[in-house]
């Protein structure tokens, strides 16, 4: 069901999801809003792009364990079936972010209330893959959200995407990640598109990703602050899910790493410590 609506922000509370951004319709960018409850059981539904990736899979698992329904966007349905345990709240759909906004809008459907983008190019022979996936693919997802009136977007990006402006042009990580297909430049372009889209976003920029369990407390900084450090993918997934649960994460870019000596802070305080963007 789609309803016409003017430009208003709504937050809602429920026992299954304490706080979740349900819908916005900016008169500038949107013509419709979505139903507040996407599932028969009332769980909020989140579409995850790149759901079979190492971070994407963790995001799916954490969303399910926090009571969300999940639509897992994947390129390979067979791979996905063997990646996830059967769960009545999990729906797997085919979604290649390079195939354009129309197909992605179909995959997202009219029952998703937020999108988390955890896709990233897979190294191969196509030198343009980072541009196609990390820039244009994310842009396609944003456009698909507009088509479906989805107004909450969480992007897993990276520290150093704006390394040149930070004076980090000679940082080996900046050079390495750009030398093959301008990966960081591609991600920065996608970030700029999201910021201009009018959609409520949280851009999460992690340091180097590790498969190990968390080994330190989370450090959260404003954009263009961190130029080194690492973090467990489990923590990155947790930040993505917490972004949906914390109003303070709206319209923010947060850079994250983990450090053993960092104080343990609540997500509310961490997100509140970073300023929102006002266009
Ligand atoms: N590695 C690092 O240290 C690091 C640091 C900072 C940020 N990041 C970023 O963090 C994100 C997650 O990283 P990760 O290492 O956990 O990811 P990953 O394991 O490499 O997974 C990437 C995911 O993207 C999917 N994908 C690739 N091309 C796609 C397409 N055309 N359409 C839809 N999905 C596509 C892959 O699908 P398949 O499973 O089908 O291949 C996979 O699910 C990425 O954006 C990455 O650039 C990484």
TrEMBL record:
InterPro entries assigned to the protein according to its UniProt record, in alphabetical order: NAD(P)-bd_dom (IPR016040), NAD(P)-bd_dom_sf (IPR036291)
Q: Which CDD domains match?
A: SDR_a5
Q: Which Pfam families match?
A: NAD_binding_10 (PF13460)
Q: Please list the residue ranges annotated as the NAD(P)-binding domain.
A: 50-246
Which protein, by its recorded name, is this? NAD(P)-binding domain-containing protein
């Amino acid at each position: 069901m789609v309803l016409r609506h003017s430009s208003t922000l709504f937050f809602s509370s429920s026992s299954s999801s304490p706080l979740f951004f349900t819908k916005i319709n900016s008169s500038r960018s949107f013509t419709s809003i979505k139903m507040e409850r996407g599932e028969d059981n009332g769980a909020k539904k989140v579409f995850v792009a790149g759901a079979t990736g190492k971070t994407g899979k963790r995001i799916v698992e954490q969303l399910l364990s926090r009571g969300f329904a999940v639509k897992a966007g994947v390129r390979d349905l067979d791979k996905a079936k063997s990646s996830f345990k059967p769960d009545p709240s999990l729906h797997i759909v085919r979604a290649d972010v390079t195939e354009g906004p129309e197909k992605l809008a179909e995959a997202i459907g009219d029952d998703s209330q937020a999108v988390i983008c955890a896709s990233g190019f897979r190294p191969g022979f196509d030198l343009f893959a980072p541009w196609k996936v990390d820039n244009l693919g994310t842009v396609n997802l944003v456009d698909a959200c507009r088509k479906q009136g989805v107004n909450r977007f969480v992007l897993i990006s990276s520290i150093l995407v704006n390394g040149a402006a930070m004076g980090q042009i000679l940082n080996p990580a900046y050079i390495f990640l750009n030398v093959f297909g301008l990966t960081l430049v591609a991600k920065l372009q996608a970030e700029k598109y999201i910021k201009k889209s009018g959609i409520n976003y949280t851009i999460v920029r992690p340091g180097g990703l590790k498969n190990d369990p968390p080994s330190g407390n989370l450090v959260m900084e404003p954009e263009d602050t961190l130029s080194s450090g690492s973090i467990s993918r489990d923590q990155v997934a947790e930040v993505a899910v917490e972004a949906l649960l914390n109003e303070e994460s709206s319209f923010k870019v947060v850079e994250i790493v983990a450090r053993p000596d960092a104080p343990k802070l609540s997500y509310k305080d961490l997100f509140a410590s970073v300023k929102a963007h006002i266009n």
